[in-house]
Task: structure prediction
Amino acid sequence: MHKPKVSILMTVFNSETRLLRFTQRFLLADAIESLLDQTFQDFELIILDNLSDDATYEFCQSLAVKDKRVKVHRDNKRTNTEEAFGKLLRLSVGEFIVFANDDDLWEKNYLEVLVSASQNSPDVDLYFCNAYSIDLEDKLIHRITKSKDEQVYGFEYPPILRVSQFFLNRNPLPKIFGMFKRESLEQVMPLKTFDDLGADMDNLFFIKFFAQGMRSEMIDVALFKYRERPRPLGDLGEKQTLSDSDLGIEIQRYLNHQVDFYIQSCREVLNQFKRNEVAFFLAFALEGFLKHTFEKLSWLNANYSSGYIASRSIEKLMGTLKHILSELPVNIADYNFSPNQNETEKLIFCEEMFTESQLAFASEQLELIHNGIEEICANFNVDNSLCRFDELTRIYSDSFNKKQEDLLTSIKEIPDSSTPEISVLVTSMNLSGYIRETILSIENQERVQTKILVADGGSTDNSVDELYKFTTVNVVSLKDDGFVDGVNRALQEVTSPYTAQCCISDSYASKLWLHEATTFLEKHPDVSLVWGFPRYQSEEGTLGPISYSEFLFRETPVLSKMYVDWLSSGFYFPEGNFVCRTEVFRSCFVTQREFEFNPVEAFLEFTARFHKYGYLSSHLPTIANYGRRHDNQSGAMLTNSGSMKKFHRDYQRKIRLERRTFLVRRKKSFINSQGVVVEELKLTFGVLLGSFFKGGISKIFEFAFLIKSLIPVKYKTQIKSLLFKFGKYRRRMNKKDSHRVKTN
Result:
């Protein structure tokens, strides 16, 4: 069987409709046509469809029927980009590998030129041509790179200089779309993300690529056209308006991302190079970090309109970065490398570039940047405890004081991204207009394996037909006895360790919400539930304010503190905005039989049982779900009928009962999902204040009940006897007084 020399790997997802809001052209067809028209014909084009729900897969299949070089595979589950390319690499057989986007263009002699270069320079690991960036209408924007900027990645320069130069520039284009030697690519694969943003995957790939001594060669002819699409943070391509609190969370995520990329790059250098070469890298890494953090802040400012606090905070940190850049004592251009230097001379020169004064300067400036990030987080009341800036500072401060292997051990590795399984329970009833948006928001959740279980209550519109359009949806019932029955029917089908619930008219705000929540639960086995902020939207989709905004300005209670807060405030977990361990969800959610005997509001009852049973919860400072207000909303109907008032009275009664139980026992035991006691809360004066003195005269009476419960039984009997005698004496004296009045 013939093995093609080149394998072209392409992932597709909704390529027919994804860009319709920007252009009416079918860009996938143009991209594949430009590949199939190559003058070099000995290649295979392997396409992996990531469960598209438009006609993308069918279009690719039709091409495979016409051209045997095209091989189409359909994934069995939604995966992220790095996993998809890993699968494609395993499916390929070519000696050389080319990655291809579904909307770029290639000149007819693209492969011919690269294959010819591989024959002339067989020791190179990556061959690539220059390129132009183009817009959606194929208009040339600019040439992507220059020949002199790419020379450093070739034979003449040492690997440490290649890595340092790449970290400074972070210019993966057009290299990432060049032609890799299979064996070289497999040494660096897999592509990996290192945080919830999933960005800079290609940049970290090339840090590893050059750190392992790989070399590249550019043919300075523009034979590739890279498609630039609108990529602001807003989904619709326009500047978004966010509150200061929302923007604060986004700024924190992107700044911490820059820190994590810095640390991951340092790890690769520490793993691959000698001590003097590590010092050389550190001399220039600060400049790269400053440069790209400044660009990221500018990008955030450009794509978000914001309030006074946000603008001032961003501008202040940008000013700090700009000042440090102007004060840098050394520049990578100062490194006058000579090809005639031997290995010893290179190492000596590397160490000279990173002097004690350079170390002191870098440590001082990193501290300034850290303070700036902490100030931004404080301005927006955002928890920044997960920031790894201390590890970054330690790399610089310990670089001369520790052995390299000790330093490497002290830097914690960011764990590999896992893909835990989670079931999302959805109830549906005559809301077909919202189904597509809701299901897509679940399908598009990244780095988790989602199982969508839908219980339809007997819709009379076309809801069921809409549901069956999605291959990922499991319709568990077509007729139930209401919301509680629908959730219980879906719950019977759950086999995954985590469960979430989402109404058919709502949608998840972030593609990483389920990943963040399940990852948190995996790292904290004693926590049974994690919740995020809800944000309501109108029937037309206009966003409203964030709910529970009080937690934006004070510490959100977690673990046992949430129990204390619940006793006082009556806070209940927002429907659709939490992820729970499945066994806990089952134990706390009301069954249909219980509901028929004593109707309750499902999530008020869930919260009451959760705290009564002693489970622990935590919170993630992010918007989890957009809850839509509409005429058929069950909550609105319950409110209009007066049932909601009854449910809330019943809920408050259960809180009072739990408070009294806590008072009598004077302690509360908390358990994990397996029923093992993991924490115990004792009734102290501080807990007493938190539980009973946050408003409400009824809680004062409960405090009197507490005092009564603290009196030993033997003294209670004596007090009752004295009170009885005193009352009898008062009644006798009152009779005597009334008799004197009558006599007089």
Notes: Residues 713-743 form the longest helix (31 residues). The two ends are 130 Å apart (CA to CA).
